[in-house]
Amino acid sequence: MFKQLKTIYILLFIIGILNIIALSGAYIGVYIGANNLEKLKREQISNKKELKEILLTQGYEISNIDIELNKIKQELQIEIQEIDKKTSEKFIKEKVVQEEEQRLIEKRLDSQISKLEKNLAESVYDLRNTVNEWSKRIAFIECSFDVNNFSSIKTFGSGTALFTNGVNILTNKHILISNELYPNSCKVKFTSDGVIYIIDKNDFTIPINDNDFGLINIKNPKFNLAKLVNSPAPICANKASIGDPIVILGYPNIGSQTDITATEGIISGYDGNFYITSAKVEQGNSGGAAVLIKENCFLGIPTLAKIGMVESLARIFDIRIILGQ
């Protein structure tokens, strides 16, 4: 019995010890868990602090970056303003320069236009004066030929009173001679004089060569005609240049028969003893006057026109060849 009680007490003791150990383990576990939890809390707090410090640091850096960006932005704005200012000033200067250049150009153009208008007016005036001056020297010539006892022909042309010693009229030979026939008579009339002069073959001179010119002499001109041509006409001493303006004076068949007809043109080229001209020359102009406008001198005799496919170019017999210059 006693042994049994002893055994029970020992068991109870052991059980108590085991409970104590168990409780101690639980306490230790709780303690350790609490410590771990506390440690974890501290770590979380520490991490939060570090994160906060990091965020604060980054925020500071971001703030600094913003400041720098604002500074750069302001500097860029200042630079842009300076560029705009310089660009504006440059634009204004360029505009001023362009306006000044435009003004100078307009001024030059106005000056050139005024000069051209003046030259044109002077040219028109010179041409009108030239025509008026030379027209008194231009004669209308009509020659009659008896072909046989039953028929006759007439030639028409123009002539120019160039020389004194009476009145000497230069014209084309083909007006004074037709198919080797001499005229029975020729009528010569100056519009400025109004008198009709009758001449025959004894009153004109024909060269023995093939040059197409002849000279009519009016021995007893009326006072008005003698006065009109009382001095020799100016003769062109030098060869005219291509492009020189000229005027043709005469009595073309398609022009007026009561007054001279004037056509203007330029020297277009050369053809042996002839000038080529763009001025209109028709039948009846032969023997008239080709006047070089710039020197107001007699250039030669309008003689013929060569007809092309569309247009024609007239020839002027050079007076220097006629005079043997």
From TrEMBL:
Protein name as it appears in the record: Serine protease
Keyword match 4Fe-4S: no
Keywords recorded for this protein, A-Z: Coiled coil, Membrane, Transmembrane, Transmembrane helix
InterPro entries registered for this protein in UniProt: Peptidase_S1_PA, Peptidase_S1_PA_chymotrypsin
One Pfam family here: Trypsin_2
Residue ranges the record marks as coiled coil: 34-89
Organism: Candidatus Roizmanbacteria bacterium GW2011_GWA2_32_13
Listed transmembrane segments: 7-32
